[in-house]
């Protein structure tokens, strides 16, 4: 479970850009929170729960949690879709194998190519790192 | 991925007490780190990666990450095994359905009973909360 400050922005990131699907959503008026369970298509055993507390709270990151990680069928296509959606590719897939991005709340997300690394390809192979992950 | 300060202590917690299994382990002498991938038996799609950096670092928690969560076949048996292993049951399963504990590095872990909640049972039904989760 990760907490998110802006649910619509997070759903846009996790679903439209990263490619996850909504499995269920619960809006709790009394508790003033919304829970959304997400998973990659065909990977419903590995779920991510988003908790959105309706009353704002600071969502700082800590060092004990590292990242979420997903294997993807085409790491270049995934990064392209994220980049076109305005997501910074913090660690571009220069090696055709691994990339890192961050969610709107700075949750670090690792993307790994399924199977063998892909051959190096522009613009990725000459793209510099941006920020930290 | 979560970082752990003491790998043997963490493996004792996640495997012997919580019941996960080691899928793979990589010791990287050059990078001075060890990676261990864990999963619940039969649930290998949902993996947890432990990263142990050999050089000590502070592993503070942040609010953006909430918890890991596992469904268990018998929440009382799981909590009994954890408690006998010296783990504090921060949120006992008074309702026969939900409990929270913490890893040695304070990662919050939610345990949920599979299927219907179990009937209330001592010592759980009268056990108070301890600390936060």
Helix-strand category of chain A: alpha/beta
**What's the shape of chain A?**
globular
How would you describe the oligomerization state of the chains in this entry? homodimer
Q: Biggest protein-protein interface?
A: A-B, 26 and 26 residues
The assigned CATH architecture of the largest domain in chain A is Roll
| Computed CA radius of gyration of chain A, to the nearest angstrom | 15 Å
Order of adjacent strands in the largest pleated sheet of chain A: 1-4-3-2
How far apart, in Å, are the first and last alpha carbons of chain A? 19 Å
What's the mean pLDDT score of chain A? Answer: 97
Count of alpha and pi helical runs of chain A = 2
CATH class of the largest domain in chain A: Alpha Beta
The major β-sheet of chain A equals: 4 strands, mixed
